[in-house]
Amino acid sequence: MKINIDKYVLAVVVISVVIAFLTHFPELISLFDHSGQDNLFPGMRIADVANEIFFTFVSLLILFALNTLLFGFNRPTARITWGKMILSFVMTWTMSNLLGQGFVYLHHHFDIPAIDAMVHHYLHPLRDFIITCIVTGSCYMIHLIRKSQQVSIENQQLRTENLINQYEALKNQLNPHMLFNSLNTLRSLIREMPDKAQDYLQELSRVLRYTLQENECQSVTLQEEMEFVHAYMFLLKMRYEENLSFNIRIAEEAGLYQLPPMSVQLLIENAVKHNEISNRHPLIIRIYTEGKQLTVSNPVQPKLTASGGMRIGLSNLAKRYHLLFKEEIEVRKDNNTFLVTIPLI
Question: Cα–Cα distance between 244 and 240 in angstroms, integer?
Answer without folding.
Answer: 6
